[in-house]
Amino acid sequence: MLCQFCIGSLDHTHTIGRQLPFGEAAAFSRNRIKKNTQKQTYGENQKGRTVITIFFDLDDTLYDQIEPFRKAYDAVFGNRFDIDIYQLFEARSVRGDEVFELAQCGKMPMDEMHIYRIQKAFEDLGYVVTDEEALRYQKLYEENQGKISMSDTVKKMLELCNVYNIRVGIISNGPSGHQRKKAKVLNVGAWIPEEHIVISGDYGVSKPNTGLFLHAQRQLGTEAKDCILVGDNYQNDIVGAKRAGWKAVWLNKRGQDIREEVCQPDYEVKNEAELFAWVRSVCERGMEL
């Protein structure tokens, strides 16, 4: 699916799937800039004002969230249930969204929220777990999140944005301290400055509420028409971004079908390799929002 702002500037069939090694990609990009020192870089207009800001969601976009989830599940539940880990993960995400706002504004204790989302996810698949098991799972899940890492593909993607002067940021739902700890573990500061990280817990409003997108614009001094959000969650990321007047790129890892939905992403990719190809096309060929 080609987005409106990429038509004419992005040859999808020649970019998806072709990747350069991390160091080679950076070297290639720097050489390209060196050869075009008299030209405008794609992230800036002729007056030097940044016109493109790409925000990335954090969880399951900049790292694979299923891995800490799977490790916690295996440690607590082992082979006890005949269950598809991806279905459980998706059910937990849906159930978590149901009570996230209550927990964020203090109307529901965090432990209660953690119990609710995993217990309901199991119930949706026909199984029952105790409060104690739910909390033990949550504890191990959080411990495993302290060991997360970015893939080389994601690192190359962020490096390429930096080389081409395309401003990048993060916009994420969750408690501020918890999300920033994950950002630190991932070493996102190597590519994204602290002031470009927008966490819902700091503002009391979360995606898909357009208020958080407005906070992000103000924090970075940009406008909706100049912003793109890359995220994996259709409701929070894609619907939220489009309602806020942003462009939206959907990292649809699970193959969700939303063809009958009114709100559609401007561009859709299935995996990190395709996302890297899209970013590389933006960097190398440019686009107008």
Give a quick summary of the entry.
With 289 residues, the chain is α/β, with parallel strands linked by helices.
The span between the termini is 17 Å
Q: Averaged pLDDT, please? A: 85
Query: What's the overall geometry?
Result: globular
CATH superfamily of the largest domain: HAD superfamily/HAD-like
What is the tally of beta strands? 6
- CATH topology of the largest domain, by name, is Rossmann fold
Rounded to an integer in angstroms, the radius of gyration calculated over CA atoms is 20 Å
* Reported CATH architecture of the largest domain: 3-Layer(aba) Sandwich
What's the CATH C level of the largest domain? Alpha Beta
Oligomer: single chain
Count of helix runs:
11
Class derived from helix and strand content: alpha/beta
Residue stretches low in confidence (pLDDT < 50, at least 5 long) are 1-42, 45-50
- Give the strand line-up of the largest sheet: 3-2-1-4-5-6
Helix content: 40-55%
